Amino acid sequence: MMKDNWAWPYPRHVAHRGGGSLAPENTLAAMRVGYAHGYRMVECDVKLSGDGTLVLMHDATVDRTTNGSGRVAGMTWGELARLDAGHAGRETLPQFVGEPVPTLEAVARYCLANGMAINIEIKPCPGREAETGAAVAIEALRHWRDAAVPPLISSFSEAALEKARERASRLPRALLQDQPSADWQERLARLDCVALDANYRGLTSGIVQSAHQAGYRVACYTPNDPAIVRELVGWGVDCIITDAIDLIVPNS
Ligand code: G3P
Ligand code: MG
Fold it and tell me: How many Å lie between the centroid of ligand 1 and the Cα of residue 186?
């Protein structure tokens, strides 16, 4: 991919896990809440079920975010589909009870129908990095084949990104790093990424400047304080992935 020629088509503000902290994470209900708050791009975490279906789920187990328990990699899609992702126990809101775990395919349908751009974070179960990277790339290419705005594929896993590149080189990729490594530029170049996607706490205006000078975009997660977001926008950060979708008004 020619990063210098890549027109960055993404809005500045991105709703983390669909609807930030206002809805059960990684669900279609969350995306509807994100949309209702003016967000036109969502971030979500995607992994493989035991029998090869791509589903939205952050953790390696379903325990924290659903009414079930067990490893995602140890469950079939049929088992995952019966879980309640709107009844996670922690801060259950009655309007979300019964909300299912969505597949990436269902999410693609929602996003395409509503003009919602997406950042698909490849979040592999341990040991399934390459397999998950390949599956996400193949499905993303298929579901978004006619889309004006392609999904932005990101991951902390370089093995997953490498496979995604192999299977769908034209889909833009971002390397996630909790703290930008000393050699982040070399890593982005090696993986042919268009963007660095860092924890906002590890970002500096200098890093943003160097990235832009080198032709890369910069995304960051998960600033939730409007004053901090203003500062990051002032530095020129291209994508702000936030949980505070009620406090951070998307405007560009
Ligand atoms: O994709 C950015 C952000 O979601 C990475 O961290 O743990 O929230 O998936 P996490
Ligand atoms: Mg994520």
Answer: 22
Please identify, by atom number, the ligand 1 atom nearest to the C-alpha of residue 17. 4
Q: Does domain 3-60+102-242 correspond to CATH entry 3.40.830.10?
A: no
Distance 221 CA to ligand 2 centre (A): 9
pTM assigned to the model:
0.97
**Crossing angle, helix 226-235 and helix 205-213, to 10 degrees?**
40
pLDDT per residue as tens digits for the range 48-105: 999 999 999 999 999 999 999 999 999 999 999 999 999 765 566 889 999 999 999 9
Task: Write out pLDDT tens, residues 166-192.
Answer: 999 999 999 999 999 999 999 999 999
Q: How many CA atoms lie within 13 A of 66 on its CB side?
A: 27
Looking from the CA of residue 222, the nearest atom of ligand 1 is 3
Report residue 58 as tokens.
Answer: 């952050």
Say if residue 161 is exposed, middle or buried (CB neighbours under 10 Å; 0-12, 13-18, 19+).
buried
